[in-house]
Write a structure and sequence with these properties.
With about 375 residues, the chain is of the alpha/beta class. The chain is built from 13 helices and 11 strands. The protein is elongated and about 85 Å long.
């Protein structure tokens, strides 16, 4: 059982401070979020002083810090929109992380349909637009502009900006995912959609750099802030788009390849067989260890078996078995895309392949699949 403390320790090692769970999803705060918030306070506090001349320096800093918190909560709501729709569509979400340039919902499985991809991508901007509308109404309800009005109005503007920016048609932005879903639906090929959205990401990055350079040439008052933000964001877009393309190629089943070409022959041995003997006959094959009652004890793990054989060569091979779980069993009739998705979403080194009647047909090793995908 995973305790609260063990979850917090593991999540912390994975790159963030665990805050809480929302709809069962761990929410983490990456160290870079603090840096981004500090930059917002430093840059936003002087602007507060200009927009609200009656505030002193301390009040301006407090208001700027409040804006950073409101912006973080808005990004959290945006990402929860993605996550809740993914859960609704049956796609598990590993965690939600807030970091320097926003946040990310780590959906553990790739959407199987273009419509699902589009719905998950659109959910975040829809939440941001709704928040922008709600905060705008709140600002209009305040009869005399003051510090609170400024905070609410700026939060409304920030949510509108988040929605508008994320709807730009380039990966890794939400608009790029919507574009990918559209091309995928039109062509029937997810890879084609990814390529189109990656190209869109390049256009978005170029536009950001162009706008930054225009500000420098024009001598605008905010030119250095614009330059820093635009260049950093352009780098984020380019790196994210490249990562999406590499990831897509690694999950795309190569044309002409069959599962049978990757599956190793399978051998069934009694679970009580000496581990040294099981190792000898397992060269190049997968080994299913079967108990006397006919129940499979698991797959022989070569590394465990070698360590066990070095000290106790006559020990039962079952002691070096990895249990066969439902998620590590593949049907020989599954499509290549389904096999890749199953392997990507399950932590195991070997997978038992069975025919339609449940009989072992072979063993697929993760390393063999990875090598086949990398050769593309």
């Amino acid at each position: 059982m995973v305790t609260r403390e063990s979850w917090r320790r593991q999540a912390g090692r994975d790159g963030g401070l665990p805050l809480f769970r929302a709809a069962g999803i761990p929410v983490l705060l990456a160290p870079s979020w603090w840096l981004g918030s500090a930059v917002i306070v430093v840059l936003y506090a002087p602007l507060v002083g200009q927009l609200a001349p009656g505030l002193d320096g301390t009040a301006s800093v407090v208001l700027a810090a409040a804006f950073a918190v409101f912006l973080g909560l808005s990004v959290l709501a945006h990402e929860l929109g993605h996550s809740l729709v993914a859960l609704r569509l049956g796609l598990p979400v590993r965690r939600l992380r807030l970091f320097l340039l926003g946040g990310v919902s780590e959906v553990m499985r790739t959407p199987g349909k273009p419509a699902h991809e589009g719905l998950i991508a659109a959910a975040g901007p829809v939440v941001s637009i709704a928040l922008a509308g709600a905060f705008s109404l709140g600002a209009m309800a305040i009869p005399h502009p003051d510090a609170v009005w400024l905070l609410i109005a700026q939060t409304a503007f920030a949510n509108a900006a988040v929605a508008a920016f994320n709807l730009l048609p380039g990966l890794p932005l939400d608009g790029g995912r919507i574009l990918r879903a559209g091309v995928w639906a039109a062509t029937g090929r997810r890879l084609a959609g990814t390529r189109a959205a990656v190209a869109g990401g390049g256009v978005v990055a170029a536009a950001l750099v162009g706008w930054a350079l225009w500000g420098l040439a024009d001598g605008s008052e905010d030119r250095w802030l614009r330059f820093a933000v635009c260049v950093l964001t352009a780098w984020f877009v380019v790196a994210g788009a490249r990562g999406e393309l590499v990831d897509e190629r690694r999950r795309t089943w190569p044309d002409g390849l069959t599962l049978g070409e990757l599956v190793r022959p399978v051998l069934q041995l009694p679970a009580e067989s000496p581990v040294s003997g099981a190792l000898t006959v397992s060269a190049g094959r997968g080994v299913v260890l079967v108990r006397a009652d006919g129940v499979a004890a698991g797959l022989l793990d070569r590394e465990q078996a070698e360590r066990l054989a070095a000290t106790s060569p006559h020990a039962p091979a079952e002691q070096a078995a990895v249990p066969i779980r439902p998620e590590t069993v593949l049907l020989a009739s599954e499509s290549g895309a389904e096999v890749v998705e199953r392997v990507r979403g399950t932590a195991a080194w070997e997978y038992l392949v069975v025919d339609l009647e449940g009989r072992p047909a072979g063993v697929l090793r993760r390393a063999d699949l990875k090598a086949a995908l990398d050769r593309r």
